[in-house]
Amino acid sequence: MFEIPAITDTGRATILFIEAVPEGILDVFKGIKNSSEFVARMANVIEEHFPPIYERIDMDRFALIAFR
Question: Which of 45, 54, 56, 65 is most buried, most CB within 10 Å of its CB?
């Protein structure tokens, strides 16, 4: 997982990138239909595989960010 600090239209954010091997344990994003499902799946992956990062996340603010 890579954490990239960023400035967006709504303020500071951390962009999270997961590098996954196809068909590996982190390749879990196939078949996602909407942003809320993606956010839930991403949170589960972070909690299971990257607990120190998960502990720093404010889950009330955890979301996708739309870039223009």
Answer: 45
Count of domains forming the chain: 1
On whether the CB atoms of residues 14 and 56 are closer than 8 A, the answer is no
Is 31 part of a structural domain of the chain? yes
Judge whether 30 lies within some domain.
yes
In a domain, 27, yes or no: yes
Please report, in angstroms and rounded to a whole number, the separation of the first and last CA atoms in the chain: 24
Residue 67, pLDDT > 70, answer no
What pLDDT was estimated at residue 47? 96
**Burial of 46 (C-beta count, 10 Å sphere; 0-12/13-18/19+):** buried
d(CA 11, CA 21): 32
Q: What percent of the chain has pLDDT over 70?
A: 97
